[in-house]
Amino acid sequence: MNEIILKIRKQLEENIDIKTKESSQKFIKEKIEFYGVKIPIVNKISKNIFCEIESFDKPEIFRLIEILWQSGILEESFIACNWTYSLRERFQPTDFEVFKKWIISYINNWASCDTFCNHSVGEFIQMYPEFLNGLINFTKSENRWMRRASAVSLIIPARKGLFLNEIFEIANKLLLDKDDLVQKGYGWMLKAASESHQAEVFDFVMKNKLIMPRTSLRYAIEKMPQEMRKIAMSK
What is the pLDDT of residues 150-175, one digit of tens each? Predict the structure, then answer.
């Protein structure tokens, strides 16, 4: 197991790009650790090494994923996200508590949050929609990443027209959240929902526009026709 982690780290270190290393921190406000490896190369390393371990038992792969999360290094978190999503056909209901633990314990920036939640958590929720209430409960957390996760986990389902009632419930619970990354998260969720339910999302925005943070509002209406955007933005 340690050999696999060491192999990943060696390959990441061999692919450090100075320009990427210098620019990485510009995109994330939180102070994070990173190697400075371009994302396509991180994904290639992730894919190649996953091919060596995909026959392992799922608990063994989960242990490797947790070691990657524990490092606190951005590129290792992306590999953890990729590997989790690669196991999607083996997801089971008990994985919800594992995913929740990883969000609470290890996620510390929007890039890791969105990569993990858009794909792995979103896929899990589509497979096991009975856990939507658990996702809605994330909105009560003091952890900003849990609250953002409640929204961004539904981005891909929202684009498919799924879970509109739960999307509005999450948006209502996060409506007055003071955290700009949470505001952006639920605004993005509403924007995704508007692709299939434009009229309903527009009605939600109009109903709440006097109290809704402008950040969330702008995200929510971004894909709507110009005339609808003008009406929504008017005071």
Answer: 999 999 999 999 999 999 999 999 99
